[in-house]
Predict the 3D structure of the following.
Amino acid sequence: MTTTSSSILPSELEDLVALFDVRGTDTPTPDAEREAALASPRFGTVFTDHMARISWRQEDGWLDRRIEKYGPLQLDPATAVLHYAQEIFEGMKAYRHDDGSVWTFRPDANAARFARSAHRLALPALSVEDFVGSIAALVRTDAAWVPSGEDSSLYLRPFMFASEAFLGVRPAAEVEYLVIASPVGPYFAGGVKPVSIWVDEEYHRAGPGGTGDAKYGGNYAASLLPQQLAADNGCDQVCFLDAATNTHLEELGGMNVFVVMDDGSVHTPELTGSFLEGVTRSSILRLATDRGHEAVERRIPLTEVVEGLADGTVREIFACGTAAVVTPVGRLLGSTFDRQVGDGEPGALTMEIREQLTGIQYGRVADPHGWMRRLA
Ligand code: COI
């Protein structure tokens, strides 16, 4: 059974995990060191003892499913990814519930997006079974690394890259897929506080027909200079406008964006193919609708938001993503405007949606759409 879109049953998960040969480290992190790392996790700085790995060869397909010691990869200087950036990734989390069990959120959606990204980057498709199986196998091996503190989780980073040593410009015939894991707290250093956004009117992250809707490292590389400009202007994140007209909101450096209007409707940029279709984004559209709010995907002109913040028709703005969860925006800044969002405090609906989403993820409230999958 190899698919890119099925939903895996708990009974099937056992068989998928069993495909992974666990080659455990002989130098595990001492308990005290691990506990110290779990006590104050900072985003993406500390990694667990193991990583999941599957190799791909054009002539053989996917082979050698294993869990191995986390450590540096040895790469030939001619490795294709170092030259042509043929690489994709995903972002997911494992959450510890009060009873000690460990769960993840909508892994099938991430698996499906990973397959779409692979297609766009001419990388081989990984089945949803291997994607979910690799995550479960790694989380079970490193279960002690899943934190239990408020707002903390084990961030999972599946990625795939062209590992063939070859300088010709063509899809690589050798590819590696790995999953690494890092205990994390809030993505923004200040915790769950309103962040400021710099709207970049000079640079674009991606354009029509490009790679913008793939979770591709190059999109993030393209966001770094604008993100630096955002920081130079005293902001936490950059917001990109569409490359075709430079007038409509698209996405932030590493997360999607929502605008809440004064009639309670919730708006987010409609998918154009040039920015990422966030799993958190689609979940919020669903939850907002469930809560009786009109949830609208449409083209959102920057001018409408800037004017709306001045006249009160725009009530709240928030960012969302796996890493960012739901983060209130307190200020929107550009070369010709500087607007506070509401009274600068987290918006009420923003925090309600955040509470419901994290409640589902941490098992505190009902999961009406069956989004959670138990891993361990
Ligand atoms: C995520 O939200 O998981 C992301 O991938 C964003 C980012 C940290 C690049």
